[in-house]
Structures are given as structure tokens and as C-alpha cells.
Prior knowledge:
The complex is a heterodimer. By secondary structure, chain A is an alpha+beta fold. Helices cover about 15% and strands about 45% of the residues of chain A. Chain A has helices at about 10-20, 70-80, 135-145, 195-200, and strands at about 1-5, 25-30, 35-40, 45-50, 60, 65-70, 85-90, 95-100, 105-110, 130-135, 150-155, 160-165, 170-175, 185, 190-195, 210-215, 220-225, 230-240, 240-245. In chain A, the strands form three sheets. Chain A has a nine-stranded antiparallel β-sheet with strand order 6-2-3-4-18-17-16-10-14. By secondary structure, chain B is of the alpha+beta class. In chain B, strands 1-5-6-4-3-2 form a six-stranded mixed β-sheet. Chain B has a six-stranded mixed β-sheet with strand order 10-9-11-8-7-12, sandwiched between helices. In chain B, strand 2 (about 45) and strand 3 (about 50-60) form a beta hairpin. Chain B is globular and about 70 Å long. Classes of the chains: A alpha+beta, B alpha+beta. Chains A and B meet through strand 19 of A and strand 10, helix 11 and strand 13 of B.
Amino acid sequence: MIDVIMTGEVLKTVTRAVVALVSEARMHFLEKGLHSRAVDPANVAMVIVDVPRDSFEVYNIDEEKTVGVDMDRVFDISKSISAKDLVELSVQDESTLRIKFGSVEYKVALIDPSAIRKEPKIPELELPAKIVIDAGEFKKAIAAADKISDHVVFKSDRDGFKIEARGDVDSIMFQMSETELIEFNGGEARSMFSVDYLKEFCKVAGSGDLLTIHLGTNYPVRLVFELVGGKTRVEYILAPRIEAE
Amino acid sequence: MKCAECKGNLLCGRSKCPLVEKYRFLRSIRIDNKILDPSPPSIFVGRIGYPKVYVGPLVAINTDPVYADSPWLWKSIEEVIELRTSMLRTSTRMRVEDVREENRRIVELQELTASVKPVDIEAEIRKIVKRAEFDDVVQPMGYSAIVEKLTITENPKIPEKVEKVYYDDLKSHEALKLLYNHGFSTYYLQKIFSAGMLGERQSRKLVPTRWSITAVHSILGEKIKREIAEFEVIDSTMVFSFEHFGNHFEIILSPERYFFQLIEIWQRKSFWSPREDWIGADGEDIRPKKTYSNLSGGYYAARLPVLEHLRRIRRQASILVIREIKPTYYAPLGVWVVEEGVRKALNTKPEIFSSFKEAFESATLRIETDRRRWQHYVFRQTTLESFFNS
């Protein structure tokens, strides 16, 4: 039995984070809270979502349980719930997820978890550069880069953190020095990434959310978003593009 | 400088004037006010005036109709221009939705299009339009004639499968996949797609030839992508190479998950870039391509034969196609040049390498344009599993 209550904003954030990469995923209701993770079909990106138990208004589970959820559908429904409204998720038997908000009760069939693509192991990455930045600033930089190229270069050195994109006749450079960044270790790193993916990732975040970037050289990047006032943690790991040199 | 002002003096910088070449052949064509000639069969649906378009069969005036509609057999630019300009484009004006009426005029046109053998056509010519046009997607065309009383003088032979799909209510992408998997060529499918013979019956339309070509390449490509997504990656890095009609192709397949990239290098003096070298690139991963390629129809024409190849060997791969267009490609012949070029390249014996870097070095040697001008466009999308076991 699962019976939990959270705000509409948390549900929307969790589902939006996952649908950026896949349409179906496993949701683990653990003692410490809700956890979900998945890799996209191209095996280029991974999403890891955690909502600690404390972030729920009510969190009742009689044992740790995993359910398979059609995230596309749940995300769609969550769009009609106001951010501050409370929403109740419950699973009574093995087959149905009930979502109640206001006077609405939405029911959707669960998916057999074994029918969903295998979950990835969470890798341990050693990445030299650590950058903490306002997610809204990052989002603006990616939106601008998207206008001129389908990939961007992330660069970190003693001078600060840069995002560069190059078009046929134009180029764009986003640059923040150590003093402008919330936290910065000055580590040296440089990798290139697909704008398409980054754009999808940014959709969960807005101005005021914290983003921690762990960057290496020609190596996957970790983008860790702290959302809904720290109630939800969404991490994306994205494989780089490598130039022919 | 417009072609009309230059009059074939090559002021544009091309190595030969496509219009002059074309008129050389056109001069030799005599047309009466009555047509009684075969169609390969082939039809052309114009895009001008959409949704009220000019549509009608192409008629072979004094050439072998089957050969004139078989791009994979053609050998030189002059031959293509000669073949295609000796085809008269007959047309009448129709609304694209008119196909839904299924009246005799429409059904005759469709039966003719779907025929596997040339069909004799009779018509009276009301007006001849002597305008020469070239297009990057569509094959070159000769004279065009507005006709009346168009009839077919024999019963066309239509494949059973096609007839079945015609009377079924399949969605057009499902119908295309079904017929393609049954062995029908993309050229044949483009024709019947254009003639509004596929799709749910109450939503059928005539599709301008130019759009139908890219639509078929794009739809079939996306279908095959979904099939190869679960295949194992190839074992080694391979390079295929081929050149025809002034179009050079280098194709590198790497043992990684599906990723497709096309680099186009138009050398100065080639048709679409008379004044300077032009370089462009586009790419995609296994997700459906959302936006229309900046390389237009050629992108989808290059992608399909690669996917065909991967499906045949039941593998997936990361693909780089480099297409270098030389001044000898002085007239655009249509995207079949790309489709056939890539297909023929993949039928040759590949060179095997132990890394992408080596393969790329080798392929680069056969590209004439200085690599420093274009190699920054080349990249590979890596996957998470190449860094750690997920």
C-alpha cells in the first residue's frame, strides 16, 4: 500500500524531469523517499530524481515498493494541478495508480516494472570542475545558444565558466567569473554537448533554482538541479559530443 | 547576374551552362498538337498554385520510357539532361483534394501512375510552355504542355499489393512501410504517394512531386530507425567511398549507437554555389528528427540508404557521410543522385580501420577541399555506456 500527499509542483517537477528522456519509468517508494531513474533510448543521457520523505505532506508506505508508471500521462495530468494544491497518490492493488486533487480522481493503469527498460547503475564520476549557478541564468544561455547551433561547448578554467556556441556567421558566448558564480572551484575542463538535450533538461528549472554543474574534458557532465525550494533533486548525466579534431 | 542576361557566357563561374545544355537537346524535339506516346509511367505534380496544382503524366517523346525513368541506370549529366528533357510534361489543373472524388479522370491517372509497364497516352495539346527549370530535389524536366482529353489507350497493369493498399484505409506512413518492405523502390512509392493513392481514403491528396520525394525518404527513414534501435552495434570501423555525376561520397560507419551526420561541401563553380565554396552540416540521433534539415531533401535522401544497409546487416552504427560536390555537377539532377550515390557506395567493399580517427584520416585524403575548412563540423555523439557500464 502506498499513500502519499505532495504539492502539485512536486509532482509536476518529478514527471517533467523524467519525460525529458523517457515516457515510462519505474517509481521507487523507499523509506527515505521517492526515487526514479532512467536512460534515454539513445543512451546519451540519464535522469535521476529524488524527493526526500520530508518533502511530502504525508508519506505512508507499508513496505518499500516499486511501480511502473506511464510518465507521459501523469505529467499531462499534473499540468492541470496548481502548484500549491495538494495531490494524493495512492496504489491500493498492483494494477492502478490513483491521483486525487481537489474534487478530481484520476486513475491510470500501472505498467509491469519488468516491462520497462532496465534501469542504469548510477556511475561514480570524478569531474575536475564544479560550478554552482542560478538555473535561470543557465536556461537563458541555452535558449540563446539554441538559436544558432545544435551544440555548445562548456569550458571552465581559472577565469570562470563559459558556454560557447558557433553558427555559420555568428557566435555566442556566455561567461561568468568566479565572483559572479555562486560557487566555483576553478577546475580546468572542456566538453561539447547537444543543445537539444540541455534544452529539455532546463524545462524543469527556473530562476531561483540552484544548478550544480560537474564538468570534465570530453567526458559526461553532471547537472544537478535543486528544485521546488530544495524539495526535489533532479540530476542529469549527459554524454559529450567529440569533435574530429 | 541572371541567366537571362548572361545567355550562356558562363559569367556565373560554372563550368558549363545548364540552360545551354538543356536547350541543345530541346531544339531537337518536335511536338505536334496531338500526343500519342508512352509514359514510363511517371507523373508530375507541380507545387505552384498549391492547393490548385498542375498535374499529369510525363510522356516519352522519342526515348525509351523505362530507361528514362530509372535513375539508378543513368551514367552522365548530359545523358540525364537529354533523357529527362525528352520527356514531355503534360498537365491539367486540379485541386489536390480532387483525388477523393475517385472519378474516372482521377482513377485513370492513378492507374497509369501505379502501372509496372509503360502506358500509351493520348491527348490534345492546348498550349506548350517552353520554360527550362532546374531543381535540387526534382529531376530536370523538359517542355510542359497543357493538355485536354487525356486518356490512356490500354489497361495498365497494377501490382496486387498496391491495389490492396489502395482500397484499404491504411494511414499513408503504414502503407508506405508495407509496400517498401515488400520490395517496391522509393521511386515507385514517390509516384503513387504523389498521385494521392495512399492514406486514409477521405484524407488523400495529390502531393507535389518535390514534397513527395522528401516525404517518402523521411517517413521510411524514421520507420527503419525504430527497427534498428535495438540491434547490436557493428564490429569495426568501415569506410565506403563512391563518386558519380560530380558527387563524391565518403561514408564512415563506427561501432557505436545510431548517430547520423551529413557534411555537404559544395565546391566553387558547382551548380548551387557558383561563387564560393559552401559547407553545411546536419545530424541526428535515434530520436525522430523534429525540424526540417538545413540541407533540405538531400539529407533525407542520404540517410535512407544508410538505414537500409544497417537493417540488412541487422546492426546499428554511428554514421558520417561526407558529400563533396564538384564543378562537374554543373546542373542539379535531383536528390536521386544522393540516394543512389550512397546506396552504391555501401555496395562496395569497405576499408576496415581500428578507430574513427584512422578512418577519418583515410577518407579525408579523397576529399579535395582543404580539411581545415570543414572538419570542425564533424563530431560524434558519444553514449554513456562508452564511459561506464550502465
